[in-house]
Structures are given as structure tokens and as C-alpha cells.
Amino acid sequence: MPDNHVDLPQGTLDLLILKTINLQPLHGWAISERIQQISNEVLQVQQGSLYPALHRLERRGWIKARWGTSENNRRAKYYELTRAGRKQLEAEETSWRKLTTAIAQILETT
Amino acid sequence: MLDNLQFRLRSLFRREHVEEEMNEELRFHYEHQVEKYAASGLSREEAQRRARFAIGGEDKIKEDVREARGVSFVETLLQDLHYGARMLRKNPSFTVVAILTLALGMGATTAIFSVVDALLLRPLPYGDPASLVVVWENSIRHSHPHNVVAPANFADWQRQNSVFESMAAMADTRANLTGAGTPKQVIVQNVTAGFFHVVDVNPVVGSGFTEENWKQGKDDVVILDYGFWKERFGSDPYLIGKTIDINGKPQVVVGIAPKDFNLYVKDGSLTGAKPQMWSPWAVPQSFGDRKESMGRYLTVVARMKAGVTLAQARDQMSTIATRLQQQYPDTNAHWGATVVLIREQLSGDLRPALVTLFCAVAFVLLIACANVSGLLLARAAKREKEIAIRTAIGASRWRVARQLLTESLLLAIIGGLLGLLLAVWGTNALLAASPKGLLGLNSVSLDNRLLSFAVAATLLSSLLFGFLPSYVATHSPIAETLKDETRGSSAGGRRRLLRHALVVGQMGLAMVLLAGSGLLIRSFIRLAGVNPGFETRNLLTFQVSLPRSKYAKDPLQVAFFNEFLARIERVPGVRSVSMENYPPLTGLGAATSIHILGQPQMATAESPVSGSRVVGPDYFSTMGIPMLQGRTFSNPELNEARHVVIVNQAFVEKHLAGENPLGKKVVIHMRDDKVDEQNPSEIIGVCGSVRQMGPGEEAKPNAYWPMPELPYSRMTVLVRTSNAPSSVVAPIRYELRQMDPELPMASIATMDQLLSDSISRSRFTMFVLGIFAAIALALTAVGIYGVIAYSVAQRTHEIGIRMALGAQRRNVLGLVLRQGTRLTLIGVGIGIVAALALTQLMSSLLYGVSATDPVTFAAVILILAAVAFFATFVPARHATQVSPIVALRYE
Q1: Which residue from B67, B76, B276, B873 has the highest number of Cβ atoms inside 10 Å of its Cβ?
Q2: Could you confirm whether domain A12-109 is CATH 1.20.120.1810?
Q3: Is the ipTM beyond the 0.90 threshold?
């Protein structure tokens, strides 16, 4: 396990989850694997934060869960975006871009 | 929103299902994790171990997920309640003591609140009571701000003011109701035009008065009180439009007042009783013109215009009063005006007592809370480890505190429910036991207001007694507690300090209550010991009122009463009999300006004042009033006006100090001014002073005339009996019926009863506060006992060592007693300071005792110290019986 991972800034986990399941419904394990893979193992999502986050997002109505069958034929709980979730994702993406651009500018100029 | 609700409900009600899904989801994750590690070449066991490690505390995750799902509040509450109930069941003795303590505290508080609420806070049965006021004349010279009003002044007020939208006056009187059934004396309130408009009340049945009814010849109409209508006429709806006979004159019933409506203003009532019907009455023109002599007897109510403040109304009324003073100095010098809000007027004299009782009961509740808090602290010591372990495995401080507070809430709810039952039952028992009409309240019932109060009291007290113990429990260092095998932990020390503080606080509060009730008891003893100035034993009183229609002429009235008294005298068991127009202890009497010949004549408003009473033969011997000087009335003087008067000692002291009163002539302005001036009365005797208004009021100057001097159609007959007065009632009623079957025997009472009623409020307040003080004392005793017993139990080990090392029993006894004494001294010290400050507030309830009465305080300190000593002594003795061997083994 390479030790180059960073801690997730507060509040970004929700954004990552929404983004990850934007393309297709995924179960919890797949979500954490996907985030890890795409970030080149930099971001690791602990189960301790992942599942509470999923249930919180479900409560807010941004994602919904349904039971399906996994690749190796097991029952698994799949999460997908709702209409409200898609809107939320757009809004969060926009504000995240603004934030990172601003921070990048500050870091570069000073 | 709806989705969200559905989601939450699912989480709550399909809990098992949701839990199962969560478990499955987490298991799925775990298995994938294991496979991933296994795929990277680890052994199966190692992969599982790593996976478990990666997941971390599974229970913690589940707990977080539950919280994220957002149902945890309700769910946790249920869980906590469940757990709390189990804890309470496991410690039955603790639970029973705590619940009983709380039930007692909350029961007493709710009971007093129900009375306070009914009398001081509830909406009044008048339209917008905030703008309804009573306007009085203010007798500046006699410092009597609530004086009844002269009709002429009322007429001027009505004309000159611009702050009131409407104004009306009333005066109550007794009258005989005849016709069907036994004749009965009733209270009629005569009201001027617009009275029902001012109070903004319409009859529930019938159309009420019209403007016309205040014109001459159209005023033979009445509106009946709801209760009276029910009691006398069985709520007969067809009574409207029919007539009833009042003083022999038919009156048409035109309305029934609403159920709760009544307007009885004690300060201005001439009968001292609630009105049973209303009758229109117009201020005669001659009064308004000030052509006739002044008398003051009206109670005035007024409705302030919208936007007018009480201060503005007061301002303008005093301006008008000042103007009238200058305009009519003869009658109005030294007379101002007082404006009082109706609520203040109606509850004014009860307020100090009720406020005192409410404060007292709040103290009782505080003591009860302190007690339970102490018990919880003691118990928290036993649960210290449990709590430390829960904190160590990840329970947050808030979570633990919540658990403990929930337990407190459970205790408070059970205590509160019991208390509520206790309150309703207790209040009604108390009201039933209290003399009739004392509080103007017959019963209280459980309603929303009372329930809300009980709920609020429950929540508040659960916070009050639960906060400290849960704070201490959650703020003790975990590691230390878990390590600590001995009893001297810092949390333990803090707890001990807190418990001691609680006990000291309790003692302080108990001291205040004891001092308050001690002062009331002493006041009451003083009051009950006051000599009213006459002999109250075996003295029967009742009223007879002769209708003008039948007994129009004075001699007829004198003759009637003389014959009636003669007949009564022959009844077996009667020792002597007399009569008086305004006997003592029955309410207001007449008072007037006088002029003693030989002294300078002054304007009416400046003249000396005396009460004026009219009496029958043998009055002074029948009443047991001693003659101090001179003689009583002779037979001729009792049969025709010879212009003689007997005055009381207070009269002589006030108006004839240092002079020989016998033979002095005095003009008493009770009749036409000319008649009075031409026929001054000669003082022929001086009698002892009688406290007319009750033992709490000083005797005032008074002049007694024999009946022919000023015949009254209504007299109170006074019968001195040799045995119980009740035995002569029936034969006397028979005699009265023989003379006139239409006359009722009204307001039958014994003087002992009247005397006892006159101090009943004082007795009632004393009684209730006494109960509270007793409860407070008992709770405090339990409190200090608990603290000392607990500390002895904690120190068993230490005591054992001391005894093994040679300490004597008395050393051990002293050791424990010293601890208790120290707490008692601090508690009593704080209590004295608090009591000295707080008893000042109840000084209006005291009679003949100062609010800082040293005797009371000394007695109270002794009682509290003795009880505290006893409560300490029991566990202290227990400590001396500790066997050193057992104690050393004691863990």
C-alpha cells in the first residue's frame, strides 16, 4: 500500500460519491475502489466515512438505493443519482472549480 | 419532503429490515476487501485480519450510519428510556424515594398553581379586562384610597372626564324575595345606566335592560345571576318576561347573566356578599345638583377609551378631583380619586398571600429537586465505572449525558404524573376544608392550563436535578476512574462537594420556609388571642328586613322589632336578646362627620368622624360590652327619641381626650342636616371599644343610638343563649312567622362562626404554609441523612482503621457529627440571611409580629438544627457500631 494518499478535505467526499455514480449505478465497494483507482491510489475512502455518507446522501434525496446483482452474482446495494442529485452534482462541481481556481491563483501569484 | 419523511419512517418502523440491509451491505464490503487482500498474495487469515483492521470499529460505523439516516434521536430516546426503566427497576428503593419526593414537590407546586391560576391569571368574565377600571374616591385624611363614591361626584366625573368611553355606578342592597317557596333575603345590585355596556356583558337568556329602564316607572325589571337562577328557579327558561316579588313589588325578569359573570367588589360592597340580581337605578337629579347632603356609597366602574393608558386616566381623574375639591370644599376637601385596574381590584387582597404561597411551594420543589439530585450523585458514584467504560469504547460525552438525562426525565415524568393526581385531589380537599367563600373558588379541575404547567414543571425539574449529576459523571477523567481502585478519586471529591452544597442549599431554603410559617403561626396566635371587645360565645345573629311597602312609618318598624324581641325573650334557652343595624364582624358600617358642641365647627370634610350604630334594648349586656362610665339607655329612651347617645372608649380617646365625656352634646350627621343640628345628642355613657371589622383591625370611634333615634328597616337580631345557639333557631322562626309569614330569617350565624371566619384567611395561609414547611423540613432531613449515611458508608474502611488504631466510639461519633454540624451551621447561616431578606416581602400578611421577629427566628433555628442533628446522629451511631475487622475487609 503506497503511502502517498492524502486526507479528503471536509465535504468533498459527497462530491466524489456523486461524481462517481454519475455514469452508472455502483455499490459501496465499487465506489471506494473507483475513487481509489481514478485518483491513482492517492485518495482512499474509509468505510467508516463512506457508508454514513451514502446514507446521508440517500436521506437528502440526492441518491437512491436499490438492490441488484453484482459481477460475481451476489446481492448488492446499488446507488444511483436522482434528478435532485444531478443538480446538486452540477452545483458542487461548479463551486469546487471556482474554489480550486481561486486557490491555485493565490498559490501561483504569492 | 414527503420522500424524506417516508425514508425516515421506514428507518424508524422497519428498523429490523433496515438494520439487516445495513449488515448485509457492510458484509459485502468486507468480503470484497478480504478477496482483494487475498488476491495480492496474503493468506486467508491475514487477509481477513487486514480487512477487519481496514474497516475499523464495525459498531461505530453502524452507529454513524444510523445517525446519518436521521432517526437516531427517537430511536436513541426509546433505547435510553428502555435502559433507564431497567436501571430504575434495579434500584427500587432509590426509585421509590426519588419519585415520592418529586411527586410531593410537583404535586404541591401544581396545587398552588391551580389556585393562583384560577384567582390571579385566568381571563376575567368581562369584555377586555385590560381597559376596565374601578374608580374610587381617595380619602386622603383617613388614608383610605378605596373609598365608595358620592353620587354627586360620580355625576361630575361622568360629565368632566374624556378618558373613559363609559362609566357606571353600582350599589348593593339586601331585599326580600317573596312569592312561591319560603321567603328569602337576596342581594340586589342597583346599577346606573350603561352598566352592562361598561363591563361589556350580555345576558345569555333574555334581552337585558334598555335605555328606557332608567326612566321613572319603567325600572321594575331585573337581570338574574346565573347561579341564582339555577338554584332558586331551576334554570326555568320561561322565567323571562315573568315577574318575581322583591320587597313586595313585582319585577319583570328581563335577562339571565352569563354563567361566570359577577362583579363583586369587596371594598365597595355594602352587603359584603355577591349580588344575585341586578336592577336599574338612576342617580336622582337632586343628588347631581348637590342640593341634598352628601353620602358616599357607590362603586364606580369605567371603560377606558382605546389608546388611553392607565396613567393618563389616573392623571385626569386626579385633576378632576382637585377641581372638585376647590369647587366644593365643604364636601370634597381632602378627597382625591383612585383608578385601579379591575384585575388588581379583584385579586388585590389575595395577591400577597397567594404570591407568598407560590414562592413557598417553588422552594419546596427546589428542595425536592436538590434531594433527588443528591440521590443521583450518590448513585453516579456507583455507576462511575460503567460510564467510564462506555466512554472508553466510544460513546460521546453528549451521548452519555443524554442517557443520564433521559433517566432523570423518566423519574420526573412518573413523579409529575403522581404529583398531578396529588395536586387535583389535594386542592379539592383543601378547598373543601377551607371556609366557604374564602377564595371564591369551589373546585379546580384538570384542564389544559394545569396540564401545561405540570408538563413544564416536570421538564424543568428533570433538568434541574438531572443536570449536575450528568455533568459530573461525564466530566470525570476516564483513565483515572478506570485505574482508581480506592475511593479518593477527584470526581468523587467533586461529587462530595456538590452534594454538600446541595444539602446546604436545602437547609437554607427550608430555613426560609420555616421562618415564614413560624411568623404566620405567631401572627395567627396573636390574632386569635385578640379580644374583640365583646363576648362571642353562645351568641346567635340573624337579619330581619322589613319591606317599606308594609312598614313605611318609623313607629311601625320600632313597634315591630320591640314586639319581636319580647317574643324571642320568652323562648326557652334565650338569656337575653337585642339588635343592632351593623353588628361587628359583618362588614362595613355607617360612619359620618360629627360636631361636638363646645368644639369649633368645621367644614364637613374637616370634621371629626365617628361610626354610627343603632341598637335595641339590653344591647350592652347582651353583647357583653362593658360600660366604663355613665349608664345605659332607659326605657323611655328606647321607645321614643330623647336625643341620647352612648359612645365607645375609642371615641373618647380620639375626640374627647382628657375631658369628661358625660353630659357633652354631639351632633351626628346621619339625618337631615337641620334635624341633626337642632337635636344634638347627649352622651350618657361610655362603653368598651369593639373591633367591628375583625380582630385584625383596630377599634374605631363609634356612637350608639337607641333605635327610635334613627329607625332602620333592616336589623340584625342578637340572641344570647344559655346553650348551643342552634337550638333556638326553630322556635324563633316560628315566632317570626306568627308575626309576618312573608319575612325571612336571613344570614343566620353564630358570633363564634363569624369571628372564626374573620380570621379564616390568616388561618388558611398559616395552615398551607405550615404544611409546606413541614414537607421542606422532612425532605431536608432526608437530604442530610442521605449525605451523612453515604459518607459513613464510604468511610467505613477509614473508620475501621481508626478504631483498629484505638479510636473510641465517641471519637468516631464526634468525627461524623462534626461533619454534619458543619453543614448544618453553613446551611442555617445562609438560611438566616435569606429568610431575613425574604420574610420582609410577606409583612402585609403578619399581625403583631415583625418580619424579623427574633423569637420566631430562634425557634426556627432550633427546630432545624435539632432535626439536622437527629438526621446526622442516626448514621453517626451506625458508624460507631462498625466492627473494625469487617470494616477493614470492606471494599
Answers
A1: B276
A2: no
A3: no
